[in-house]
């Protein structure tokens, strides 16, 4: 029995798409700083545009520097996932934080009237279609001709156990969601924008297709790093521009259609005439022939100015352009199907510092963040709480069963409420026990989340843990640790854990603890 809809939250069953409750970390990252006022990072700054931008646009730094030279206008981006950014834009009280929006696509934004009404102009800057990058040796063994590959061929290779892949989380990343739309459209045979009936028709084939997904991620950059580290994943699904930057891949645009990002730079209705004029100046500069050549050469995206050819190596053959879902209900339904039925389930151990230093406000914040997070857990998800002090205090595992999800969620909340603070801080001992608990499970996206407010003061030392980790089987070494920097924890210590295990460090010192937990969801 499927649980009833809950209030707007991301990444949980039957909730509307991507309504986040904790974005303080994202809202403050990379914002403009007012002259002489470091305490107000959101304040406007003369000659600067504060731009809410899709995270993959971080590779545009050389282009933005050229635009600054050409126009005198500096772009100060706040990077986040495209769909997260749409939700930020839709939230009340965000007027005045940004001067412009630069997303990979405005397709989902147009399904959100509360966000769309804040946009007054949209000008495409460049484009990049969804594609699949396959190890060149794998293309040969499959006998594929890259210019003729279809989504059905990819599906059959997955079914036959000949192809595995990684893709970004559709609930956070537009590349992931556009990939999901592309696959669902092709496998359903939809002749126009996806409908609920198309999604239902395609579901059996989609279930088989997503059995091949071995990696998930909240960002394209981490996905590429994880792919290189693993070495046993055959392909990546992402934008063509991202895949072209990864050595050893043959980039294929399936001939039965893809969704394309067009990266519109958009003015916001709440800005003044001077700001809009600066947006137009930047837009015009980005669309000059010289800058369009720079864009395609540096980023492998396609120019939108007809007189500028795509960079060498970009296939110029025409492909069918697949339409985006026409209604938000279809988009939400497709994401719900992916999260709760189609993708591999998640399996996560939360290694939680409940040492004496967590007493008081820190423990309260941890309990609040975890309790809020229960609204995000997916059907079939296995969640283990492993609080520790001088040693691991308890190991409590719960499964969010599709038959009775509320029972699992209630048990997690109960265990969270009972957390208490005492003892020293045995970080590495607790991590070892987390790995021992998990073993290896190829049928789930398996990870460890480590939250600590201090340095390791008890149990095994860092060097001992390094030796323990290196002694693990290859399958268990594939389990990443995602540490959260909180309180007085040591950045160097936690960064080392992330790099050793193939995880990523999340910072709750500059932002919120619940925001860090939320962001990690894209990697689980």
Describe the structure.
With 524 residues, the chain is an alpha/beta fold. Strands 5, 6, 7, 8, 9, 10 and 12 form a seven-stranded mixed β-sheet that branches. Strands 15-14-13-16-17-18 form a six-stranded mixed β-sheet, with helices on both faces. The protein folds into three domains: 24-127 and 262-303, D-Maltodextrin-Binding Protein, domain 2; 128-260 and 319-338, 3-Layer(aba) Sandwich (D-Maltodextrin-Binding Protein, domain 2), CATH 3.40.190.10; 345-523, von Willebrand factor, type A domain (Rossmann fold, 3-Layer(aba) Sandwich), CATH 3.40.50. It is 39% helix and 18% strand. The model is unreliable at 1-39 (pLDDT under 50). It is built from 21 helices and 18 strands.
The mean pLDDT is: 89
Helix content: 25-40%
State the CATH class of the largest domain. Alpha Beta
User: Strand portion, in percent?
Assistant: 15-25%
Tell me about the largest β-sheet: 7 strands, mixed
Short description:
By secondary structure, the protein is an alpha/beta fold. Helices cover 39% and strands 18% of the residues. It has helices at residues 24-28, 61-71, 82-90, 107-110, 113-116, 136-142, 151-159, 174-188, 196-209, 220-230, 240-243, 273-286, 289-299, 328-342, 361-373, 405-417, 427-438, 462-470, 474-477, 491-501, 513-520; strands at residues 48-54, 74-80, 100-102, 119-124, 126-135, 165-168, 213-217, 235-239, 249-252, 260-261, 264-268, 302-303, 346-353, 382-388, 396-399, 445-452, 481-485, 506-507.
């Amino acid at each position: 029995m499927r649980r009833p809809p809950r209030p707007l939250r991301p990444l949980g069953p039957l909730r509307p798409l991507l309504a986040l409750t904790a974005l303080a970390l994202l809202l403050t990252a990379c914002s403009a700083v007012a002259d002489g006022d470091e305490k107000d990072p959101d304040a406007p700054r003369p000659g600067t545009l504060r731009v809410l931008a899709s995270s993959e646009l971080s590779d545009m730094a050389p282009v933005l520097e050229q635009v600054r030279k050409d126009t005198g206008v500096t772009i100060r981006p706040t990077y986040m996932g495209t769909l997260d950014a749409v939700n930020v834009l839709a939230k009340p009280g965000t007027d005045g934080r940004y001067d412009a929006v630069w997303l990979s696509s405005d397709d989902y934004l147009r399904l959100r009237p509360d966000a769309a009404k804040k946009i007054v102009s949209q000008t495409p800057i460049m484009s990049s279609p969804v594609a699949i990058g396959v190890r060149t040796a794998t293309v040969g063994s499959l006998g594929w001709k890259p210019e003729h590959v279809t989504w059905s061929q990819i599906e059959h290779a997955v079914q036959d156990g000949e192809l595995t892949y990684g893709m970004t989380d559709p609930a956070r990343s537009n590349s992931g969601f556009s990939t999901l739309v592309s696959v669902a459209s092709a496998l359903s045979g939809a002749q126009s924008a996806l409908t609920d009936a198309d999604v239902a028709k395609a579901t059996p084939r989609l279930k088989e297709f997503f059995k091949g997904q071995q990696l998930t991620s909240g960002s394209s950059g981490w996905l590429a790093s994880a792919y290189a580290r693993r070495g046993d994943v055959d392909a990546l699904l992402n934008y063509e521009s991202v895949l072209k930057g990864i050595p050893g891949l043959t980039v294929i645009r399936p001939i039965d259609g893809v969704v394309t990002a067009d990266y519109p730079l958009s003015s916001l209705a709440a800005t003044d005439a001077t700001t809009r004029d600066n947006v137009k100046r930047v837009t015009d500069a980005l669309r000059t022939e010289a800058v369009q050549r720079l864009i395609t050469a540096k980023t492998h995206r396609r120019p939108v100015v007809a007189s500028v050819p795509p960079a060498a190596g970009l296939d110029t053959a025409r492909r069918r352009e697949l339409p985006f879902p026409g209604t938000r209900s279809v988009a939400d339904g497709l994401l719900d199907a992916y999260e709760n039925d189609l993708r591999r389930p998640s399996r996560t151990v939360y290694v939680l510092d409940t040492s004496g230093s967590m007493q008081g406000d820190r423990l309260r914040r941890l309990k609040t963040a975890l309790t809020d997070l229960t609204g995000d857990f997916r059907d079939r998800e296995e969640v283990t709480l492993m609080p520790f002090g001088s040693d691991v205090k308890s190991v409590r595992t719960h499964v969010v069963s599709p038959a009775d999800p509320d029972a699992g969620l209630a048990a997690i909340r109960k265990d969270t409420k009972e957390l208490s603070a005492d003892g020293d801080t045995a970080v590495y001992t607790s991590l070892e026990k987390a790995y021992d608990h998990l073993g290896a499970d190829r049928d789930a996206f398996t990870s460890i989340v480590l939250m600590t407010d201090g340095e390791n003061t008890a149990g095994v030392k860092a060097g001992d843990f390094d030796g323990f980790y290196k002694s693990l089987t290859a399958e268990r070494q594939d389990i990443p640790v995602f540490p959260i920097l909180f309180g007085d924890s040591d950045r160097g210590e936690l960064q080392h854990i992330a790099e050793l295990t193939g995880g990523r460090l999340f910072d709750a010192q500059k932002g919120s603890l619940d925001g860090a937990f939320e962001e990690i969801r894209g990697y689980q």
